[in-house]
Amino acid sequence: MTAKKKIPKLDEETWVHSALRLLAKSNIEGVSIDVLARNFGVTKGSFYHHFQNRGELLKKMLDMWMANTTFGIITRINTSSRDPKQRLLDLLELPSRTAPEKLGWETELAIRSWARRDALALQTIIDVDRVRFDYTKRLFLDLEFAEEEATVRANMALAYLLGESLLSTSIHSTDVRKASARNLWQKLVTI
User: Fold this and answer.
1) Is the dihedral of CA 70, 73, 75, 77 positive or negative?
2) What pLDDT does 106 receive?
3) How far apart are CA 148 and CA 188, in angstroms?
4) pLDDT value for 163
5) Does the record carry Ubl conjugation as a key word (predicted)?
6) In terms of CATH architecture, what is 58-189?
7) I want to staple 140 with a disulfide (CB 3.0 to 4.6 A). Which of 51, 146, 150, 157 is the partner?
8) pLDDT for the residue 96
9) pLDDT at 176
10) How many angstroms from the chain centroid is the CA of residue 118?
């Protein structure tokens, strides 16, 4: 008698998370219902139990990405410290603290690439960038920088974060990356 293959219990969140990982490793064209179902060892019927179509999955991917990589990070940073200087440092050190297996920045890059061809992905990028910018600017305003200066410094901080996150972790050690973040932080918080 052969043992039956155990089929995993899949919920909507598991499908979306798996689709985001697939996106990070390939591109939006690589996110297919067939591939996801095959990766889980289930039929496409399991997918349709949770989603009406691929479009609904894509929308939920963007929603989850925004919730985790923007609102989730802001919540964690705000919870970690009340001091705006420390929150800014925590934000700038984020790329050096993110484990490569999380595929965070690979996902970010894949979504930004997708947004070049898709209106919904583009709107999500616009919304994410606005929330991130407003949060970072608020940190500088809390440090009592004038509005215009807070705007410029927030832009510099976000440009650093995006650039640093896209650099290969093999170029510099975590220590060098943290030292870079601290060096920039010292310059940004100095009046």
Assistant:
1) negative
2) 86
3) 14
4) 86
5) no
6) Orthogonal Bundle (1.10)
7) 150
8) 79
9) 82
10) 18
* CA nearest neighbour of 160 among 188, 127, 191: 188
Q: Are 80 and 168 in contact (CB under 8 A)?
A: no
Residue 49, token pair as written in the block: 């139990």
The predicted structure's pLDDT at residue 180: 84
User: Looking at residue 190, what is its pLDDT?
Assistant: 87
Which residue in the block uniquely carries the two structure tokens 């999380």?
102
Enter the pTM of the model: 0.87
Phi/psi of residue 82, each to 5°? -90, -20
The amino acid present at 171, given as its one-letter code, is I
Closest CA to 27 of 118, 124, 111: 111
CA distance 163 to 79: 26
Rounded to whole angstroms, the Cα distance separating 18 from 6 reads 19
Secondary structure of 117-158 in HEC code, one letter for each residue: CCHHHHHHHHHHHHHHHHHHHHHHHHCCCCHHHHHHHHHHHH
Residues of the chain with pLDDT under 70: 1-8, 99-102, 168-172
